[in-house]
Amino acid sequence: MGPNEMTQIEGTLNLNDYPEPDGIQRILLGPGPSMVHPRVLQTLSNPLVGHLDPYFLKIMERTQALLRYVFQTSNRLTLTVSGTGSAAMETAMANFVEPGTPVLICINGFFGSRLAEMARRYGGDVEIISRPWGEVFAPEEVKATLEKRPAKVVALVHAETSTGALQPLDDIIKIVHRQGGVVIVDAVTSLGGLPVNVDERGIDICYSGSQKCLGVPPGLGPITVNSGAEEILRKRKTKVSNWYLDLMLVQAYWGSEHIYHHTAPISMNFALYEGLRMVAEEGLEARYTRHLENARLLWNGLEELGLQLLVPLEFRLPSLTTVLIPEGIDEAQVRARLLQEYNIEIAGGLGELKGRIWRIGLMGYSSRKENIILLLGALQHLLYKRFPLTKST
Amino acid sequence: MGPNEMTQIEGTLNLNDYPEPDGIQRILLGPGPSMVHPRVLQTLSNPLVGHLDPYFLKIMERTQALLRYVFQTSNRLTLTVSGTGSAAMETAMANFVEPGTPVLICINGFFGSRLAEMARRYGGDVEIISRPWGEVFAPEEVKATLEKRPAKVVALVHAETSTGALQPLDDIIKIVHRQGGVVIVDAVTSLGGLPVNVDERGIDICYSGSQKCLGVPPGLGPITVNSGAEEILRKRKTKVSNWYLDLMLVQAYWGSEHIYHHTAPISMNFALYEGLRMVAEEGLEARYTRHLENARLLWNGLEELGLQLLVPLEFRLPSLTTVLIPEGIDEAQVRARLLQEYNIEIAGGLGELKGRIWRIGLMGYSSRKENIILLLGALQHLLYKRFPLTKST
Question: Could you read off the pLDDT of B320-374 as tens digits, one per residue?
Fold first, then answer.
């Protein structure tokens, strides 16, 4: 039992065991959190204000408008829940899945499985369809499944953080609507980095996280719900068992009535507002272009290093790239050395891809040319003991 | 429809509508968030690191040890959930109330009612006992109720933020244990400001929020669970319907295995660590004394202004004081003028005390003599049009 596991009841606390946090700086090229621009970090240390302060209510209102811009929606119900992207996922499941609701979940990665797990916990009558990790669903599969058993709720992941695959949405959404269901789209790793376009695509419920392409620290979960789906909430037969994420209660605070629900995470909301301002200043189109061009630079560089990518170009996510581990390489050691020697974080695989891939994120403020060149150089050295532009070392 | 409610789809976003947050500074003397020391604010803007970075895991470990210190416990299961104090409350309810669990909730204020609401949502067989708001429960009431119907879970609020009453716990806890139940204690407005002493009192499950007496921004919910209560979690017949707050999953991330559950709110965890370091530097006893002495200064000053306090001295909370609104005073106007003219936030009443009381918080970094003298002077002027130390104006 180390000193940190012992009780500190008897006044034995030794302050030397708890040094000041030293504020180390990492090059974050994993699946999130991504790096955060100093302007956003600075806003985090603004003094606190109350959660019903007129100043804060104005920040909330403007944040909602900026969220509508990044989601590209006019949905009234557009806000953040006071938890991470996983809490936003749970908000979608808790509010739209009642006991017995027929649900279809499309699973082609870790986060699809999580959707199914949550839907079951809320009592949904859950059917799943699966694709191998790294692949995407064709509209026909969804259509055939729904013809056998219609579903009130269909959930799928736009950008699978565990595989790097980008799921085409348009045809699937039309199919779900034709049979009378609503579509829940996980845009955790796409919002702010590639087009989500909620209204144009007809997405009914869409959620994300603050810490990926939006370039804000983790801790807030943006979500938007269209008027048809809002109607479903109003007609629920049972109360949402999850009080903290009950959308009607959260909306009563974000709406013009401002009815107290819980104390909003003030500092995180400051940061989100500043992060969204930076998205708006850059402009969505320019931001998408930056994410895509930088991803291409990475992909080309990786291929020049002789590495293979898991996902074919057509369905490859610009925000998260998955690289197959070359034969004979100790993948965990490469990641450890990237962190220790170059201060770079990338991630390993999750679930069935554990040990088989690296995951490299280029999201938000992390998506910069200098980070890519640095990573490629470091990888070249670690894999081939050769620095860039040199024949040998 | 104002510009902020319109969709921003067509590229019509006007950046001038979204000015830089101006970082106003308030004297926060409401029920929370309390003010945050510049040292803690500064830590918030440290660069991000990954949620599995060895550096971050060390911060988590030290945070757990410091949480054990403020809770005064040796409980292994001591951590924060990634949401506000209300999420911590929900964690207690979601994990310990299964469908059909006999639950007793003691309601003498707003947050007791919320506990009952949550317990019902999780399917608990909920019995309530009530006291008028501002009063506390006597052990005999709890005993008599449990003799008629035993309960597996008894929940009550240590420090009722809505009334300013401090609930004595020791005898009630013994009674609950004797009939075989566990006690959940809401310490949202007490932890770090007055003794909670989890182990000494035998509290089974205790939770709090970061933004009150701990002096950290809102967004994290500390919780501790003793080994007996942990055993109950392991023996649950049903899965916790709330995935995000499922304690066994959260513990698997905080524990030595560090199994990914959700992306921790990194920046907020930096701030909590620094805030807890400041609690440890001051020392719990000194901190309790400061909170109590400053509260006495406030109480005396309010009484000298001819104001009456809701709660008798014996059960009065040092961290939150409730003041009866004098006859003929527009209470909302006084609060608005305090904010506009003096930059001071205090709060009105909730629920059945709405319009009848003011709530004045002296928590964490807000609990300072200069804030109290300022508030008393401002109140004197607003109520009597007279500045301190002058005969008239």
Answer: 999 999 999 999 999 999 999 999 999 999 999 999 999 999 999 999 999 999 9
Q: Give the C-alpha separation, A126 to A97, whole Å.
A: 10
Closest CB to B33: pick one of A3, A87, A266. A266
- Whether residue A290 sits in one domain with residue A173: no
Q: Quick check: B393 pLDDT over 50?
A: no
Asked if B47 lies within 8 A of A69 by C-beta distance, the reply is: no
Distance CA A133, CA A115 (A): 15
Interface check for A186 against chain B (CB to CB < 8 A): the answer is no
User: d(Cα B360, Cα B366) in Å, to the nearest integer?
Assistant: 11
DSSP A309: B
Report the chain B residue with the minimal C-alpha distance to residue A260.
B350
Q: ipTM of this predicted complex?
A: 0.95
Last-in-domain residue among B280, B305, B327: B280
- C-alpha A97/C-alpha A153 separation (Å) is 8
The region, left, alpha or beta by phi > 0 then psi within -120 to 50, assigned to residue A165 is: beta
At which residue do the structure tokens 């006893």 appear?
B285
Closest C-alpha among A132, A136, A268 to residue A210: A268
Q: Are strands A347-348 and A357-361 parallel, antiparallel or unpaired?
A: antiparallel
Give pLDDT tens digits for B246-300: 999 999 999 999 999 999 999 999 999 999 999 999 999 999 999 999 999 999 9
pLDDT for A387: 61
DSSP B230-253: HHHHHT-SS--S-STT-HHHHHHH
Mean per-residue pLDDT for A94-101? 98
Q: Let me know whether A361 and A252 are in one domain.
A: no
Do B258 and B296 lie in a common domain? no
What is the H or E stretch that residue A183 is in? strand A182-186
Is the CB of residue B56 less than 8 Å from the CB of residue B264?
Answer: yes
CB contact under 8 A, A8 and B68: yes
Q: Does A238 touch chain B (CB under 8 A)?
A: no
Q: Which of A8, A30, A47 lies closest to B65 in CB terms?
A: A8
Handedness of CA B284, B290, B296, B301 (dihedral sign): negative
Number of folded domains in chain B? Answer: 2
Minimal C-alpha gap between B332 and chain A (Å): 13
| Residue B310 to chain A, least CA–CA distance (Å) | 22
Task: Name the minimum distance, in Å, from the CA of B300 to any CA of chain A.
Answer: 26
**Whether residue A241 is found in the same domain as residue A290:** no
Q: Which of A90, A125, A77 is nearest to A233 (CA)?
A: A77
Domain span including residue B62: 38-280
Whole-angstrom distance, CA of residue A318 vs CA of residue A189: 10
- Condensed to tens digits (0 to 9), the pLDDT of residues A366-384 reads 999 999 999 999 999 999 8
A105 and A222 fall within a common domain: yes
B293-B224-B125-A96 Cα dihedral, nearest 10 degrees: 110
Report yes or no on B1 lying in a domain.
no
| Residues of chain B neighbouring A33 (CB-CB closer than 8 A) | 48-51, 263, 266
Question: A212 and A245 share a domain?
Answer: yes
Report the CATH number at residue A295. Answer: 3.90.1150.10
Predicted TM-score (pTM) above 0.90 = yes
Cβ atoms of B320 and B298 closer than 8 Å: no
